[in-house]
Amino acid sequence: MASIIESGWLYLITHFNDFQLACLGSFFLHESVFFLSGLPFIYLERAGWLSKYKIQTKNNSPEAQEKCIIRLVLYHLCVNLPVMIASYPVFRFMGMRSSLPLPSWKVISTQILFYFILEDFVFYWGHRVLHTKWLYKHVHSIHHEYATPFGLTSEYAHPAEILFLGFATIVGPAITGPHLITLWLWMVVRVLETVEAHCGYHFPWSLSNFLPLYGGADFHDYHHRLLYTKSGNYSSTFVYMDWLFGTDKGYRKLKSLKGSENEVEGKQI
């Protein structure tokens, strides 16, 4: 398996230069993973399939979904791509490389774990600041246009927010100067995580059912349903910051009440 990956990587670095791989390659990878993972939830919602796993009964109109897609393409081309190009010198300066040999899985997994921890910390405070009155009204309210989120709404936001919270995602790699393959893997898992958190469905196989402190769709959907002053649940992937600062109390109370109701219904049956 390792030799296959190395052979594929050798092909890439011999046919494309570092700038093409780090900027254009990263952009293409991001767009592919994002839309291929996010679009199916639009069709699930329209077709009504797996509706028993849908967190909210309300559906988005086709017009609202199409508006989201059009703006996302615009944001990605006009914000994300230029940021990737502008960030290239910084990552090169910090030691990012694309050459062989590839880093070991131990190095890759350790770095990605560090990125998750740091991203959760930075994102929490950035997100919480965005829920102050002025910033919410003028910036973050764009993201909250969709009270019933679906996968693609994860990156539907004001350009200023894209830059503001995007910093949380790139600060870890910028510090460590990883191999490009580590950066790509981090980007893939981060995109898949945020799409899942906004998908609007809580499945029996959802990671939040098995992974301690993992937020997931049910946790983040609560954040979208409530008014900005009362929402809480500001965390990104893992919810330790909300737990530490008590900003998930409303959500935990609701989960406790639902659990009690289910227990009573089970006894009656």
Automatic annotation (TrEMBL):
Residues 113-247 form the Fatty acid hydroxylase domain. InterPro entries: Fatty_acid_hydroxylase, Sterol_Desaturase_Related. The chain crosses the membrane at residues 19-44, 68-88, 108-126, 162-187. The keyword Membrane applies. Keywords: Membrane, Transmembrane, Transmembrane helix. The keyword Transmembrane applies. It comes from Rhododendron simsii. It is found in: Membrane. Belongs to the sterol desaturase family. Pfam families: FA_hydroxylase (PF04116). Signal peptide: none annotated. GO terms for biological process: lipid biosynthetic process. GO terms for cellular component: membrane. It comes from the Eukaryota. GO terms for molecular function: iron ion binding; oxidoreductase activity. This is Fatty acid hydroxylase domain-containing protein.
